[in-house]
Write a structure and sequence with these properties.
This protein is an all-beta fold. It contains no helices and 9 strands. Helices cover 0% and strands 67% of the residues.
Length: 107
């Protein structure tokens, strides 16, 4: 079973240039949830599904354009690769790396 939880730094190669975003994935009561941050906005992830090493989700953004994005990526340890689609536009390549967890602070 693959773990998707953590903070992921994503790079999207889009027709309008390279866009960086951060996705945070957590598991609450056995359900995978997440948020995406980038371009000055934070949006919830919807339809989040982890099936083996394949992770899919949808999100709506307003910057740089108002778009509904659909992501499909494959997890490989602490890296991911895949695509993001916005409607009928061509798919954009997505790559990402999971950030190392912050060290525990001892008191």
């Amino acid at each position: 079973m693959h773990s998707a939880e953590g903070t992921w730094d994503l790079a999207l190669s889009t027709p309008v240039g390279r866009i960086r975003a951060t996705v945070e994935l957590t598991r609450r009561d056995g359900v995978l949830t997440g948020t995406a941050r980038g371009q000055g906005e934070e949006v919830p992830l919807t339809d989040l599904v982890l099936d083996g090493d394949r992770l899919t989700w949808k999100q709506a953004v307003t910057k740089p354009l108002r778009l509904n994005l659909a992501f499909a990526v494959t997890l490989d340890g602490d890296t991911l690769t895949g695509t993001s689609r916005a409607g009928r536009l061509p798919a954009s390549k997505v790559t990402g790396e999971r950030r190392a967890p912050a060290p525990a602070v001892e008191e």
